[in-house]
Amino acid sequence: MSMRLTPKRAFITTTCLAILPTFAAAQNVLTPIDPLAERPYPYEILGMQPGDSLDDVMAVFASRSDEEPTSEGDVITVQSPDGRSFEFTFERHREIGGQTMNERLARIFKPESVRAVLTSDVMEQRPMTLTRSLNQPSGDLPAAQALQAQMEETYGPPSLVETRSGGVTLTYAWGVDGFIPDLEDQTPREITFLRSGFETTDSYVPCLRSGGDAFDTTTEYQFAYPRTRELYPDCVAKFVISYGTGPGNTSISFRLDDFDLARQHREALDSQIIEALTGEQTVKPSDLDL
User: Fold this and answer.
1) Which residue range(s) make up the domain with 153?
2) Among candidates 277, 170, 172, 177, which has minimal Cα distance to 223?
3) Which of 77, 169, 181, 186 could tie 87 with a disulfide, CB 3.0–4.6 Å?
């Protein structure tokens, strides 16, 4: 029996959990897809790339911190109009050096934090996004020019350099045709999407955000059916390095997003959820005493 899931009637119930790195068995089982292709770009954070195995990521975490990584996850339930339900646990991320709620409120920063935003079990919890944040006395970190020189020595000139008072942001962008040497000097392309239920056509350039919300820009998974927007079309990955200074203090952040991997993850997870809720299904009768 087939059915149509609609945005109004197909929904997610998400409960934030404080969880350990290992989940208990979920009600529904996700099937891993074929192994991922090697990532085409050279960018790394502490030797890690999106798509690495979770074991390899945890080995790097263990080498940098004696503390157990913190973790956050959801219990995700998607329901269909005829009452079918698909439920699974999804570990959203693991992190070392993260802030507690009280520390965030008090604006107490840790010297270093590293986070891996994870895929679900369809990709064996491999990271889609990796971030590293440093917040230390200025004398303990390099100057902005020295950091930029190091990045250019390692990866070449960035796709985009944005300067501001006391800081700079470097962006390396990788598109479907490879490295994008000038992020802003690209030929605009057209994209059609739904806005308020109507088809809208807008222009965009790969790996730059659209001012009109023409497409999704986060690797983190949220279920929606049907999808009304693509996920960062024609952009494979972005590596963003941000540098800022305050009184006696310097902050540096590194963020590596793999949108190609996130698109694969979204498609695979969507497919398994939708198939479970719309495909043929044999229901075993209960044995209640009638």
Assistant:
1) 12-278
2) 277
3) 77
Query: How far apart (Å, rounded) are the C-alpha atoms in residues 141 and 138?
Result: 5
∠ CA 114-116-121, rounded to 5°: 160
Closest by CA position to 255, among listed 115, 69, 93, 58: 115
Which pLDDT score is estimated for 26? 36
Residue 253 domain flag? yes
Q: What is the mean pLDDT of each run of 10 residues along the chain (290 residues)?
A: 36 31 54 93 98 97 94 90 88 86 60 96 97 95 96 98 92 97 94 82 89 87 90 96 93 97 97 88 75
288 falls within a domain:
no
Cα–Cα dist 205/177, whole Å: 13
1 occurs within a structural domain: no
- Count of structural domains within the chain: 1
